[in-house]
Amino acid sequence: MALRKFTSENLGINCYLLYDDDTREAIIVDPGEVMPGLIDEIDENALLIKYIFLTHGHADHIGGVEELKKMYPGAPVAAGAGEKEILADPGKNLSTLILGRDVSIKPDLELRDGDEMRIGRWKFDVLETPGHSPGGISIYNGWIVYFGDDKYSGLVLSGDTLFKHSIGRTDLYGGDREVLVHSILRKLYILPDNTLVLPGHMEHTSIIDEKFHNPFTNGEYTPE
After folding, report:
1. Is there a domain that residue 96 lies in?
2. Could you give the CA distance from residue 48 to residue 22 in angstroms, rounded to a whole number?
3. What is the pLDDT along the chain (224 residues), one digit of tens a residue?
4. Which residues contact 193 (CB under 8 A, 6 or more apart)?
5. CA quadruple 214, 111, 117, 4: dihedral positive or negative?
6. Number of domains in the chain
7. What is the largest CA-CA distance in the chain?
8. Range of the domain at 15
9. Does the predicted TM-score (pTM) go above 0.85?
10. Residue 58 and residue 95: Cα distance in Å, rounded?
């Protein structure tokens, strides 16, 4: 599986492109805006966009969806079933405030805990991880992956649930810190320790690093 990361200068959002080297099927994750490097990678590798996946519905993660849907009309927008309200409401998804324009999205696929998405040989398990927003989700793949110079036993795209040594904010509509920490402890920290964490902002991390160094959860995580 090929993995590419694109970080928006304007919004500081990490957008990810993952694709199967053989079938050329691909998934775009959290397109806060449409960056030229993303489109170049898609065109140069003749990729078939199978999903436009949203970890949650805030403006900085959805700003490029409308443009991408025009470019790849066959690619369904996939998001958590509990995120419909935020995605549809420009006031709640903050697009009016952050982007200066109203963005209202109706997902083509509503995902729930235990669902799967596939690109070629690769399967991604859907994990409901609310707290930053009511219907936030993460997706996990348990195959070996290389990122930079390091080898990991799998990867999880965590959106704004879990960051390197931090967690997502919970003061926006539908946010709940207790729920967020519970999501991290019960859905993410049970993944293999050497799982690569690809967050919606900032640099990557790993599950084992967060278990022992994240100040927001360290006091609540007890190693077995």
Report:
1. yes
2. 11
3. 999 999 988 778 999 999 999 999 999 999 999 988 999 999 999 999 999 999 999 999 999 999 999 999 999 999 999 999 999 999 999 999 999 999 999 999 999 999 999 999 999 999 999 999 999 999 999 999 999 899 999 999 999 999 999 999 999 999 999 999 999 999 999 999 999 999 999 999 999 999 999 999 976 655 44
4. 206, 207, 208, 211
5. negative
6. 1
7. 49
8. 2-213
9. yes
10. 7
Give the ranges where the chain is alpha helix by DSSP (H). 36-44, 59-62, 65-71, 84-88, 95-98, 177-183, 207-213
DSSP per-residue letters across 189-222: TTS-TTEEEEESSS--EEHHHHHHH-TTTTTT--
CA distances in angstroms from 123 to 10, 27, 34, 142, 156, listed in the order given? 32, 11, 25, 8, 12
With H, G, I as helix, E, B as strand and everything else as coil, classify residue 59. Answer: helix
In a domain? residue 222: no
Q: In whole angstroms, what is the distance from residue 24 CA to residue 48 CA?
A: 6
Closest CA to 224 of 211, 207, 206, 205: 211
Q: By the 8 A CB rule, do 208 and 223 touch?
A: no
Task: Specify the CATH number for the domain of residue 7.
Answer: 3.60.15.10
Compute φ and ψ for 60, nearest 5 degrees.
-70, -5
